[in-house]
From TrEMBL:
Signal peptide: none annotated. Gene3D superfamilies: P-loop containing nucleotide triphosphate hydrolases, Peptide chain release factor 3, domain III, Translation factors. PROSITE patterns: G_TR_1, G_TR_2. Keywords: Cytoplasm, GTP-binding, Nucleotide-binding, Protein biosynthesis. Pfam families: EF-G_D2, GTP_EFTU, RF3_C. One of its GO terms (biological process) is regulation of translational termination. This is Peptide chain release factor 3. HAMAP family: Rel_fac_3. GO terms for molecular function: GTP binding; GTPase activity; guanosine tetraphosphate binding; translation release factor activity, codon nonspecific; translation release factor activity, codon specific.
C-alpha cells in the first residue's frame, strides 16, 4: 500500500520537511501535558500551561465548554502548527472521549503518523487500544511515549510486552529508563548513546544531556549511582538480546513502534520524542482517490475536508472547514474547484492554526492543515482541486448506534431547531433523519454522551431548550442499488423510511431480523452501516 522505498518520489524541500501527526491516548495518560510541552519546545508558546489557560479563558465565554470541563472531555479537534529545527510540525488534536470516535477516525485520515501516549503505571488502556485499531486500519506509523515515569510504574519489560501482546506490534526501545518513581533519574538514549537526566527543579526545562561512548563509558558513573547503573547495564543487555532493533521500514509500514520513556510534566523525554518525529516520521504521504493516487509532490493543489467546526468564535456564526492539503503549494486567494458543488471557490481568508493564534495563511504546502471559513458550502469529505474531479477515499460516515427523536421545548421555535440540527449534521456531530411519515426529526449518534452535548449546544448557541425521546427505531441503514428498486422499496416500507441530511434514503428498524429479511427479499439492494461521505 504505502511506498517508502527508494523509488518514492522526490518531494520539494518545503514538503519534505513537514510532519503531520496526531496524539492518541486514553484520557488522563497525559496528552494535554505532552501537547503543551511539544509547543513549548517548538518555541510556539513561552511557558507551558498556556494551552490550558487559553482553554479556560474560552470556557468562561461559552457554557458549552463547561460541559467539556465537567465531563473531562475535549469535544473539538483543532490543529496547531509550529517550526521545530529544520522541520515544520502540524499537530492535529484528536477528541479524547470514546463517544467521539467517528470524529477521531476522520481526524486520523488527515495525518501521516501518530504518537501513542501511555501511562507507565497503567499500560495499554481500553481507549488506547481502540484508537490504535483505527491507526492500524490505515497502517499509520506510531511512536510511543510511555509517560509518568516519575511515578511508580510497571517494570519496563512488562510494559513493552504488554504493547507487543495486546496490540500485536513490535516494540523497539529508543530509550531505557533509569530508576522509577522517586528514584527516577532519567533515561539512556539507545539511538544516540546519550545519558538524559531529568531536571526535578524546573519542570519546564530540559535536564542535562551527556554524550557517551556506550554504557561502559566510565563518565556515566559520575551521574548514575552504582546500583542503578548495574541494573541499567543488565536490562539494556537483555533488551538488546530479546527485543528487536529499530527498523525504519517496519515502523513506516506500521508494524513496529519505537518507545521513549519520559515524564511530560517534567519535560523529560519530550525533546527526544520530537527528534524521533523529525528523524523518522514520514513526510506527507500520498492519498488515494476514487480514480488515482495523489502524490504530495504534484504541482497542482488538492485537499479534502476532514472536519467542520461551527461557532469557533461565538460572535460570528462562522464555520471553519479543516482541510488537509494533499499536494501542491497553496497560495492565499487561489480559486479552487469545489468538486461536489461543481463550482469554483475563492479561498481568500484561509486560516493557519499557528499554536498561539489563528492566523491568515499566505501560503501552505502539502501536509498542512488549513481552516477555510465558510457558510456551510464545505462539508466533511469535500475535495478541493485545481480543476480535476477527485474524490478522496476512506472518509467514512458511520451508522449511528443510538437513535432518538428530538422536540423543541417551545413548539413556536421549531424552525430554529431545523436550522440547529442541520448545522450539527453538516459538522458531522450527529446524523439527522427526516422520517417519511410524521413530523419532527430523528437524531442518530454513536455514543449517548453526544445527546447531552447536542442538547447543551442547541440551548447555548440557539437559545432553544430541547428534549430527546426514545423512538421505535434502534438501527439505521443506507440503501443503495438500482433507482427503480430503491423507489419500489421506499414505497413498500414508508413506515420505516427516512432521508438523511443529504436527501439519501435510510431504512430504520429495531430488529436485525428486518434487516436480514430486506436483504433476502430485495437482493438487488444493499443495506450498509457506513456511507462514504460522497
Ligand atoms: P489527558 O487527559 O491525556 O490530556 O491528560 P493530562 O495531560 O490532562 O494529564 C492527566 C493528569 O496527569 C494531570 O493531572 C497531569 O498533571 C498529570 N500528568 C501528566 N504528565 C505527568 C507526568 O509525567 N508525571 C506525573 N506524575 N503526572 C503527570
Amino acid at each position: 500500500m504505502r511506498d517508502h522505498g527508494s523509488n518514492a518520489p522526490v518531494l520539494p524541500p518545503e514538503i519534505a520537511r513537514r510532519r503531520t501527526f496526531a496524539i492518541i491516548s486514553h484520557p488522563d495518560a497525559g496528552k494535554t501535558t505532552l501537547t503543551e510541552k511539544l509547543l513549548l519546545f517548538g518555541g510556539a508558546i513561552q511557558m507551558a500551561g498556556q494551552v490550558r489557560a487559553k482553554g479556560e479563558a474560552r470556557r468562561t465565554r461559552s457554557d458549552f465548554m463547561k460541559l467539556e470541563q465537567e465531563r473531562g472531555i475535549s469535544v473539538s479537534a483543532s490543529a496547531m502548527s509550529f517550526e521545530y529545527g529544520k522541520n515544520w510540525f502540524n499537530l492535529v488534536d484528536t477528541p479524547g472521549h470514546e463517544d467521539f470516535s467517528e470524529d477521531t477516525y476522520r481526524t486520523l485520515t488527515a495525518v501521516d503518523a501518530a504518537i501513542m501516549v501511555i501511562d507507565g503505571a497503567k499500560g495499554v488502556e481500553s481507549q488506547t487500544k481502540k484508537l490504535f485499531e483505527v491507526c492500524r486500519l490505515r497502517d499509520l506509523p506510531i511512536l510511543t511515549f510511555c509517560n509518568k515515569m516519575d511515578r511508580e510504574s510497571r517494570d519496563t519489560f512488562e510494559i513493552i510486552d504488554e504493547i507487543q501482546e495486546s496490540l500485536a506490534l513490535d516494540v523497539a526501545p529508543a530509550s531505557w529508563p533509569i530508576g522509577m518513581g522517586r528514584d527516577f533519574l532519567g533515561a539512556y538514549d539507545l539511538i544516540h548513546d546519550r545519558l538524559e537526566l531529568m531536571d526535578r527543579a524546573d519542570r519546564n526545562k530540559r535536564g542535562q544531556s551527556i554524550a557517551l561512548d556506550g554504557l561502559d563509558d566510565p563518565r556515566i558513573e559520575a551521574h548514575v549511582p552504582t546500583e542503578l547503573l548495574g541494573k541499567l547495564r543488565e536490562e539494556v543487555e537483555m533488551a538488546r538480546e530479546l527485543l528487536p532493533a529499530f527498523d525504519k521500514q517496519s515502523f513506516l509500514e506500521g508494524h513496529m513502534t519505537p518507545i521513549w520513556f519520559g515524564s511530560a510534566i517534567n519535560s523529560f523525554g519530550v525533546k527526544e520524542l520530537m527528534d524521533g518525529i523529525a528523524e523518522n516520521a514520514p513526510a506527507p504521504q500520498p492519498r488515494l482517490t476514487a480514480s488515482r493516487q495523489v502524490g504530495a509532490e504534484e504541482k497542482r493543489v488538492t485537499g479534502f475536508v476532514f472536519k467542520v467546526q461551527a461557532n469557533m468564535d461565538p460572535k460570528h456564526r462562522d464555520r471553519v472547514a479543516f482541510v488537509r492539503l494533499c499536494s501542491g503549494h497553496f497560495m492565499r486567494g487561489m480559486k479552487l474547484h469545489h468538486v461536489r458543488a461543481g463550482k469554483p471557490m475563492a479561498v481568500s481568508n484561509p486560516v493557519l492554526f499557528l499554536a498561539s493564534e489563528r492566523e491568515i495563511a499566505e501560503d501552505a504546502w502539502a501536509g498542512d492543515i488549513i481552516g477555510i471559513p465558510n457558510h456551510g458550502q464545505l462539508r466533511i469529505g469535500d475535495a478541493l482541486t485545481e480543476g480535476e474531479d477527485l474524490r478522496f477515499s476512506g472518509i467514512p460516515s458511520f451508522a449511528p448506534e443510538l437513535l432518538q427523536a428530538v422536540r423543541a421545548g417551545d413548539p413556536m421555535k421549531a424552525k430554529h431547531l431545523d436550522k440547529a440540527l442541520t448545522q450539527f449534521a453538516e459538522e458531522g456531530a450527529a446524523k439527522l433523519f427526516k422520517p417519511a411519515i410524521g413530523s419532527g426529526w430523528i437524531v442518530g449518534v454513536v455514543g449517548s454522551l453526544q445527546f447531552d452535548v447536542l442538547a447543551s449546544r442547541i440551548e447555548i448557541e440557539y437559545g432553544l431548550p430541547v428534549r430527546f425521546e426514545q423512538t421505535q427505531f434502534t438501527s439505521a441503514r443506507w440503501i443503495s442499488g438500482p433507482q427503480d428498486k430503491i423507489d419500489a422499496f421506499v414505497k413498500a416500507n414508508r413506515g420505516h423510511m427516512a432521508t438523511d441530511h443529504d436527501g439519501d434514503p435510510v431504512y430504520m428498524t429495531r430488529l436485525q431480523w428486518d434487516i436480514d429479511r430486506v436483504e433476502r427479499d430485495w437482493p438487488e439492494l444493499r443495506l450498509s452501516a457506513t456511507k462514504e461521505t460522497h
